[in-house]
Specification:
alpha/beta; serine acetyltransferase, domain 1; 10 helices; Hexapep; amino-acid biosynthesis; EC 2.3.1.30; serine O-acetyltransferase activity
Amino acid sequence: MPEIKHKLSQFDPVWSRVCEEAVAAIAVEPLLGGLVHSSLLHHPTMERALAYRFSLKLASGEMSEQILREIADEAYASDPELGQAARADLMAVFDRDPACHRYLQPILFFKGYQAVQAYRVGHWLWTQGRIDLAYFVQMRVSEVFGVDIHPAAKIGKGLMIDHAHSIVIGETAVVGDNVSMLHSVTLGGTGKEDGDRHPKIGNGVLIGAGAKVLGNIHIGNCSRIAAGSVVLQDVPPCTTVAGVPAKVVGEAGCPQPAVMMDQVIKGCN
């Protein structure tokens, strides 16, 4: 790794670790050298690397890599919280997903992480009034990753989406900090109503695979939603709900369900 790259990365422990892992990965598998260099080691910061991955993944005949790269670079430069959220999301995946053994894996290989970072750029565009471009990002994220998050949705830091297939998050949904959800989760509406019509997910919530949370309802902090449940009413904090329709079946079982990732209803040990 070039000396200047090392000097820049050492002030950012997360990015520094990614770069160290990148060097080690090439030593083990030289055939990945081009991918790892172009995606990670050629960039002085994590933000620049994420902008490159954003442009590479979402480019098409309708929008070039260069234009998308400029859009993402502008977003990261204008809003430091995008980079902070990216690091928090990365830490969340590493801490909660037993299949993640290195920091570089989500950036290179995990579509859930990549889709969320692309959504964050799209959300930034939305807040800047660049609505059609935000919709374009949403469309490409859905086409490429199978994850459909409306750019107007508000998502906190430390989000972990495991597998991430068929995730749907609606326009007026709000997701708090340190939330974990598995594949095929829907945060949707209940019909054709306009206005504020999507769920509000509190901090530290764990949402199991295939769960559907529908309507303008509130899911309390540190609660659990069992896999396959259909939630149509508010959920109190620190409880577990399950069933169709979902009902309270007990306490959450531990202080931080989203971190423990324990989906057994009898509770966390």
